[in-house]
């Protein structure tokens, strides 16, 4: 029973170059879903080694947070506190875009 639950959560991601003609996908294993992208530790990994989905995701999050900041400004939050919110919710996301391991990660 435990194996069936683990198998239903398992996904297979086959990496290949961007040229679709050279991609020879093997047949999927029974009960394991083949996917073209997945989210691992907060980073969207694609089968073509492209980062466009991850960048679009981070940019959409930042856009939503900027809207939130406009609402906070309109409700009278002081500039000092807006700066703190900006650093916490927008700059931290943009930093994670370029440094996925976090502030102390070594490459």
Task: Write a structural description.
By secondary structure, the protein is of the alpha+beta class. It folds into 2 domains: about 1-50, no CATH class; about 50-100, no CATH class. It is built from 3 helices and 4 strands. It has helices spanning about 1-10, 50-75, 80-100; strands at about 10-15, 35, 35-40, 45. Helix 2 (about 50-75) runs antiparallel to helix 3 (about 80-100). The longest helix is centred in the middle third of the chain and has 23 residues, at about 50-75. The protein is elongated and about 60 Å long. The mean pLDDT is about 80.
Based on helices, strands and strand pairing, what is the structural class?
A: alpha+beta
Gyration radius from CA atoms, angstroms: 20 Å
Uncertain runs are none
- Looking at how many chains there are and whether they match, the oligomeric state comes to single chain
Describe the structure concisely for a colleague.
The chain has 107 residues and is an alpha+beta fold. The protein is 48% helix and 13% strand.
Relevant terms:
two-stranded parallel ribbon; two-stranded antiparallel sheet; 4 strands; 2 domains; 107 residues; alpha+beta
Secondary-structure map:
Elements: H1 2-9, E1 11-13, E2 33-35, E3 37-40, E4 43-46, H2 52-74, H3 79-98
Parallel strand pairs: 1-2
Antiparallel strand pairs: 3-4
Helix pairs in contact: 2-3
């Amino acid at each position: 029973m435990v194996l069936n639950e683990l198998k239903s959560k398992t996904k297979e991601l086959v990496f290949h170059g961007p040229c679709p003609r050279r991609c020879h996908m093997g047949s999927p294993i029974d009960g394991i879903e083949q996917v073209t992208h997945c989210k691992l530790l907060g980073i969207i990994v694609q089968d073509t080694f492209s980062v466009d989905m991850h960048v679009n995701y981070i940019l959409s999050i930042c856009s939503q947070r900027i809207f939130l900041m406009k609402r906070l400004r309109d409700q009278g939050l002081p500039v000092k506190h807006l700066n703190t919110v900006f650093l916490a919710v927008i700059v931290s996301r943009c930093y994670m875009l370029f440094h996925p391991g976090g502030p102390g990660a070594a490459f």
